[in-house]
Design brief:
MltB_2, mainly alpha, signal, peptidoglycan lytic transglycosylase activity, Lysozyme
């Protein structure tokens, strides 16, 4: 699921921007290479190693397709909830989701015990975002995408923060630079975390010392649960529209229609 709702909130993970934003933002607009040079200095000042900055940003180019896609993302949810949910929660997706619940029952039980989020909610999000990791996680360079959006003056501070967070992911060794591939707003992995949320909510649940949201199912599902847990999700309570848990899911996605679809899908999986 593409996380672009007019890029106001991608499918939901812009909650941790401020912590990732450079102390002194590079000047947006103007010459792209000059902007990258300025941002590189700010990134190094913020603690990113010169080697990582050089490897990630040397030769990076502006991506006009990203800006074109950004401009087209207004009014994403024009359908009614019934129309939208019908396109997202298919019989096959429900069937696959129930299989995933069975296949990952032990893992999901441990995650529920630690984070207090029911398996059906986690699997519903996983299914909606990338068809349980089997669908499209995006094919664009995260670094190039975020550099392009950061250079654009519409939301430069927001995306400079995301670009800095992406460099932190590489510096921590969570993902190799050639694994930093994602969608049109820089979303990464099987549940499409933006880099700032990757840093804030990511959990190493397989115990290998790294948070890998592209390849490690334990890390993916635990990190998704952790985001909801930190946002106030309470296990055993209602999660439908009007509930406190529904509001907690706002950190995942501000769009009411999308959160209603998560709840609807979770109900179908639980039946």
């Amino acid at each position: 699921m593409r996380k672009l709702f007019g890029l106001v909130i991608s499918f939901g993970l812009f909650g941790a921007i401020s912590a990732a934003t450079p102390a002194a933002a590079a000047q947006c607009g103007g010459d792209f290479n000059s902007f990258i040079s300025s941002f590189s200095r700010e990134a190094i000042a913020a603690g990113i190693s010169p080697n990582v900055v050089s490897q990630a940003l040397a030769g990076v180019t502006h991506d006009p397709a990203v800006l074109s896609f950004d401009r087209r993302q207004r009014g994403t949810f024009k359908k009614s909830f019934e129309e939208y949910a019908a396109t997202r929660v298919s019989a096959q997706r429900i069937k696959s989701g129930r299989l995933m619940l069975q296949k990952n029952a032990s893992l999901l039980s441990r995650i529920e015990k630690r984070f207090g989020v029911p398996p059906e909610i986690i699997v519903a999000i996983w299914g909606l975002e990338t068809d349980y990791g089997k669908g499209d996680m995006g094919k664009r360079s995260v670094i190039r995408t975020l550099a392009t959006l950061a250079h654009d003056c519409r939301r430069t501070e927001l995306f400079q923060g995301e670009l800095l967070a992406a460099l932190k992911i590489v510096q921590r060794g969570d993902l190799r630079l050639d694994d930093m591939v994602g969608a049109f707003a820089g979303e990464i992995g099987q549940t499409q975390f933006l880099p700032s949320s990757y840093i804030k909510y990511g959990v190493d649940f397989d115990g290998n010392g790294h948070v890998d949201l592209r390849h490690s199912v334990p890390d993916v599902l635990a990190s998704t649960a952790n985001l909801l847990h930190v946002s106030g999700f309470k296990n055993g309570a209602d999660y439908h529209e009007g509930s406190a848990n529904f509001e907690a899911m706002r950190e995942w996605n501000r769009a009411v229609i999308y959160r209603k679809t998560i709840a609807y899908f979770a109900d179908k999986l639980a039946q």
